[in-house]
Amino acid sequence: MHKLNSEIICYLMGVLLLFNGGFMLLSSFVSILTKDGQTLPLSLASLLTLLVGIILMLISRNHQKQLNKRDGYLVVSLGWLLMTISGMLPYLFTGVFQDVSSAFFETMSGYTTTGSSVLADIEVVPKGVLFWRSTTHWIGGMGIIVLAIAILPLLGIGGMQLFTAEAPGPSSDKLHPRITDTAKRLWFIYVGFTLVETVLLWFAGMSLFDAINHAMSTVSTGGFSTKNTSVAFWNNQPLIQYIITFFMFVAGMNFVLSYFALTGQIKKIFKDEEFRFFSRMIFFSVLIVAVVLYTTVDLSASTSFNHPQVLGEVESAIRHALFQIVAVVTTTGFVTADFTAWTPVLTVLFFALMFMGGSAGSTSGGIKGVRHYLMIKSGFLEFNRALHPNAVLQIRYNKAVVQDNVIQNIYGFFILYMLSFIIGTLGFSVLGLDFVSSIGVAASSLGNVGPALGDFGPAFSFNGLSMAGKWWASFLMLLGRLELFTVLILFTPFFWKRI
Question: Which value, to the nearest 10 degrees, does the dihedral of the CA atoms of residues 461, 466, 468, 472 take?
Answer without folding.
Answer: -30
